[in-house]
Amino acid sequence: MVRVAGGLRPLEGLPVQVVVDGVAYDPGRMYRLVPGSAIGGRFAILEGGFTGPARRIPAGAAGLRVACLGDSTTVGIGAGPGDAYPRRLSDALGRAFGGQRTEVVNAGCPGYSSAQSLRLFADSVAPLLPSILVAYLGSNNEFTRASPRTDEEVLEGLARPFARLLSHSHLLRWLLVRLGPGRPRVPTPDFRERVPLERFEAHLASLAGQARAGGTSPLFIVPAFNPERRAAVPLAETYAASVRAVAGREGIPLLDPADEFRSLEPYPLYAEPIHLGRTGHRILTARLYDLLVTDERLASPFERAGLGALRAFEALAARSEGRALSEAEVAAVREGLAHLRAEVPEAALAHAVLSLGSDPGEALALAGSAPATREVRDLARALLPSAEAPVEEGGTDSLPLALVALARDDLVRASAYLRGAGLAHPYRPGIRRLLAEVERLRGGEEAAADARAQLAALRAEVVEGDPLEWALPPEGTPATTGALLTPEVVRGAALLLHRDRLHGGAPRIDRRIPRAVRAATAGRLEEGAALTREVLRTHPGEPFALALLARYHEMNGEPREAEVLWRRAVEVEPGNWNVRLLLARLEFERGERGSALAEVERVLEERPESADAWVLGLEIARALGDRERTERLLRGARDRAPDHPRLRELLAAGG
Q: Which letter, b or e, does each residue of 446-480 get, where b requires 16 or more Cβ atoms within 10 Å of its Cβ?
C-alpha cells in the first residue's frame, strides 16, 4: 500500500485554495482545472480547462492563435486575471491586428511541472493547432517531491490498472494526501526533484518537436526569480539556465527578462518570491509582443494568418524605438499593406498608413469616423488643417492636438497640449524635445531649459529615443514652426501613439526609483526623497514614486502630506491594492472606520488571497463592534495567514 501511495498523491504541492477550488483529479496529469469553476474564486476556468481570455477565433477560422503554456505565473496568480501576461498579450494583439483575427489561449495550470505541461499540450493545446506556442516553464520542477518518485514515475504508476482502480476512491486519495510523508527541504537519494534536470531538458526539446510537427512555432520564456527565491532555491537558476541552453540548441526564439528585472531591483516586480506582480507582467508582455513581431523565425505564423504586412509594420514600429526607419523599409511595408484594405481593422491599418506614408488624406479616408481612429484623424488634420474639420478634443490624446495647434501657429495651445502629452506618455523624450523647441519659439527660455532638463533625465535614466525624437530636427539647429511640423514628425508621432496604445503606456521604469528605495532602506532618507522628487518632476504620474514619497512623509511625521500622495497614487493606478490598504489604515487611524472597512471589503473582492486585507478588516470590524463581520474576517485571516504577526497580536488581545 505504501508503494502505491507514492503514485497516488495527485494534489501535492498545491496551495490550499487551489486544491479546493477549480481542481479535479486526473490520472493522466495528476490533476486538471475544471471548466465552470474558478481558482481562488478569482480566475474563471473556461471551456477546455483554460483560464481567460475567452476564445475569439471560431474553430477552423483563419487567424493567429497564440497558446501560453506554463504554471501559476502564466495563470496570473500574484497579479490578477486582468494583468496576467496572456491576457495583456491578447489585448495588445487585438489592438494591433484585430480582435477577430487573433486570440491567446491561457493554458497555464498552477503547480504544473514540465512533465504535466507536456501532457497538457498533447491532450488539450495541440488539437487547437496554435500558430505560436509560448512556454513559460522552469518553476516547480526543481522542488523535491513528498515521495521518492519523480513526476514521470508517478504518472507511469497512475497508468497501471491497480492504481487506476484505487484512484477512483476520493477517500483514499484524501487520506494519501493528508497522511503521506512531508516534502523534504533538499533532495536526497530517496527524495528527488519532481523533474530531474536531464529530464526537464528532454521535456523542453520534446515540446518543441511536437509543436513544430503540428505546424506550431515554439517560443520559450526564461522564468525570472526575485532575490529571496534565488537565495533560497539556487537550483531554480540551474533550471532557468537549461531553458536558455535548450533554446540555443533547438533554434527556438527566447525571451529572457532576467537581466532587465535584476537591473530594476528592488522595484516591486514580484508579488512574492515566486510570482510576478502587475508591473512584472506588464514589462514581460511588452517584451514578448516585440519578440513575436520582430523575430524572423516567427514570421511564418503571421503570413499564414494573412497578417504578414501588419506584422512587418509592427516590426518597424518596434525598431523605431531605437533608430530611424529607412525609406526602403517603409516602402516595402507600404506595398504589403496595399492588399489588406478589406481584411483588417480600420484603426490598425489607418495607423500603419499614416505612420509610413506621406498622404494624410489616405489615412483620413481609411480612418472613417470610428472612435478608435480619432487620434489618426487629428494627426492627419495636422498636415491638412481645415476649417471644415474641427478638432475633436473630447477623449483624444494631447499629442495630436499639440500638432494641430502647431499647424495653426498657436504656440500657447501647443505648449499646453504638449505638457498634457508628457503626462500621458511619461517616458517619451521626443515630447520633451518638441516642448523645448515650442517654448524657445515662444521666448520662454526658462520653460525651455526645464523641458531640456527633463529630456536629459529621460535619456540618462529611462530610454535613449523614440520615433518622434528621431523625426525632429537635430538639437541646436534653428527651429521654425514649419520645421517642427513635417510629414516625418507626424509619422513619428503616429508611431509613438501606436506603440503606447498597445500596452496602455510605454512599459518602462525609471532607474532612479530602485536607487531611491536602496537609499531609503540604508537609512539615507533625504537622498531617497530627493531622487523620488526628481522622478515625479519628470513624470508626475509614476504611482510607485508617489507611494515612496508618501512613505517618506509618514516617516518624517507628516501624515497630511503623505495622504495627499497616497490618494494621487490610487487615482493613477486604481488596481494598486497595497496602496488602497494603506489608505484604509489611514482612515481607520483617523476614526473613519466605516469608510475604511468598506475599502478593505472592496480590496477583498479583488484580492481574496491578501492576508493583510483580512487582518486589517478584522481589526476594523472588531473596533466597530460588528460581531458577524469580525467572525467572518477572523476565519478568512486564519485560513490564509495563521502566523501573521498582527493577527497573533489581535488574538492575544482578545480580538
A: ebbebbbebbebbeebbbebbbbbbbbbeeeeebe
579, exposed or middle or buried, with CB in 10 Å at 0-12, 13-18, 19+? Answer: buried
Contacts of 404 (CB under 8 A, 6+ apart): 378, 381, 382, 385, 391
Phi, psi at 550, each rounded to 5°: -60, -45
Distance CA 366, CA 350 (A): 5
Q: Interior CA angle at 159 toward 119 and 183, to 5°? A: 75
The amino acid at residue 255 is: L
Round to whole Å and give the CA distance between 15 and 404: 55
Q: Is 305 left (phi over 0), alpha (psi -120 to 50) or beta?
A: alpha
- How confident is the chain (655 residues) per 10-residue block, as mean pLDDT? 37 38 81 89 89 84 93 91 94 89 94 95 95 93 78 81 55 53 60 89 98 97 89 89 97 96 88 85 95 96 92 90 83 81 70 82 81 83 65 73 90 93 89 94 91 91 89 82 88 90 82 88 87 88 86 84 86 75 82 89 82 90 91 88 83 75
Are 137 and 236 in contact by the 8 Å Cβ rule? The answer is no
Q: What pLDDT was estimated at residue 18?
A: 40
Q: Cα(307)–Cα(64) distance, rounded to whole angstroms?
A: 8
Q: Reduce the DSSP state of residue 66 to 3 states and report it.
A: strand
Give pLDDT, residue 184.
58
pTM of the full predicted structure? Answer: 0.86
Q: Cα(436)–Cα(418) distance, rounded to whole angstroms?
A: 10
8 Å CB contact between 404 and 360 = no
Query: 342: Cβ–Cβ under 8 A, 6 or more apart, which residues?
Result: none
Please tell me the distance from the alpha carbon of residue 68 to that of residue 346, in angstroms, as a whole number. Answer: 28
The pLDDT, as a whole number, for residue 165 is 52
Distance between CA atoms of 412 and 594, rounded to whole angstroms? 47
47 secondary structure, DSSP code: G
Please report how the helices 327-337 and 346-356 are oriented relative to each other, as an axis angle in degrees rounded to 10. Answer: 150
Cell 471551456 -> residue: 47
- List Cβ<8 Å contacts ≥24 apart for 120-128: 120/29, 120/69, 121/69, 121/207, 121/210, 121/211, 122/210, 123/28, 123/29, 124/48, 124/49, 124/50, 125/67, 125/69, 126/210, 126/211, 126/214, 126/216, 128/65, 128/67
Provide Rg for the chain, Cα atoms: 27
Phi, psi of 558 (to 5 degrees): -125, 75
Could you say which DSSP state residue 646 is in? H
Cα–Cα dist 592/583, whole Å: 11
CA 84 to chain centre: 6
> 69 has which bridge partners?
107, 135
C-alpha 411 chain-centroid distance: 38
Amino acid at 410: D
